[in-house]
């Protein structure tokens, strides 16, 4: 059980940190505003290929963080408990 927790924590912290860096670049219009990290993406007309890749990577990292952590913290322990319950019932 501790192994899954550490894997989920690693995914959560690593993916979350990378998402926060990219969100700081693309979703923070100014540091005086109250919408840091959650403002709409403000690339403008001067978007390069790297800006587009950064925005795509930011969205992918967000979902990787959420789904990856939930998989290791909820999904795998739930599957193991269900498997144990099925094996106990079969005996």
Map the helices and strands.
Layout: H1 2-26, H2 49-90
Helix pairs in contact: 1-2
Describe the model.
The protein has 91 residues and is mostly helical. The protein has one domain. The protein is built from 2 helices and no strands. The longest helix is centred in the C-terminal third of the chain and has 42 residues.
Descriptive key words:
91 residues; mainly alpha; DUF7314; transmembrane helix
Write a compact overview of the structure shown.
This protein has 91 residues and is mostly helical. It is 74% helix and 0% strand. The chain has helices at residues 2-26, 49-90.
Radius of gyration: 19 Å
Count, helices: 2
Residue stretches low in confidence (pLDDT < 50, at least 5 long) are none
Strand content: under 5%
Order of helices and strands: HH
């Amino acid at each position: 059980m501790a192994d899954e927790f550490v894997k989920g924590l690693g995914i959560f912290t690593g993916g979350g940190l990378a998402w926060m860096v990219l969100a700081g670049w693309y979703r923070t219009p100014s540091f005086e505003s109250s919408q840091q990290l959650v403002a709409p993406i403000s690339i403008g007309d001067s978007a390069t290929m790297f800006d587009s890749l950064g925005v795509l990577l930011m969205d992918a990292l967000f979902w990787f963080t959420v789904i990856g952590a939930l998989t290791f913290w909820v999904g795998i322990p739930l599957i193991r408990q269900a498997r144990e319950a099925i094996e106990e019932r079969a005996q």
